[in-house]
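Handout, section B. The chain below has 256 residues.
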Amino acid sequence: MSSGAGENFWTTLPLGREVRLLAHDANGLAAFAKPAGVLSHPNTPKDEPRSLLQARYDLESEAYRWTDAGGVARQLCLLNRLDSATSGVILVARDEALAREIRAQFLRKQVRKIYLALVFGRPHVARQVWRDRLVIEKRAATVRTQRGGHIPAECEVSVAQAGARDSGLTLLRLEPRTGRSHQLRVQCAEHHLPIVGDQTYGNFPKNREFAKATGEKRLFLHSFETDFAYEWKGRKFTFAAKADMPPEFGAFLAKG
């Protein structure tokens, strides 16, 4: 199976709905901008039309596989995941060995990730570090996380932009130092700054009021920037990608 080579590979990908290529390097690392509502990978073949790539996904190898127009077998390995409701930067690699190395860096917490979240309320201080203990329950295909367990969760939090006074909204910059399932959504809720549109952990009355006033029901959580250094074939490299903040985040901040 060929992982592809050259620019032609990156310009002929079977990209999902509104998915954009942000960056790629000579080693085959790449970043996409994933829209809200798009799956990181399909769980069943019927999910393929609403996934990152419109291609078959192998759960065991964590790789998309397809045959291009020239009949050549291609693949891209998924390096991280975002909830379908979360937009922003998501990473892939052409080479399976490189994919294993970058996944290991995620586990070693060597990948810097920055998120933006539009939340109800205003923090008491402009910058702080949240340190919580979580419990994570996985039942079938459902994951639920809550405070009060023994799993450490840490995140650096700062105010990126205060909304108009009458809006009751704040844009937070979140830099997680741990990578727990639903960590940011749970920590925001537990610190009384629920993310707008969070249908699982958020403020349900405020979500309904916001949706009625704006017509917007998305989760306002966005993977804004990812960067890291890595070593490959005896050489050192850096990789960085940024997905611009969706325009609706700023639009609602300005409205009272």
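Note. The mean pLDDT is 91. Compare this with the example in section A.
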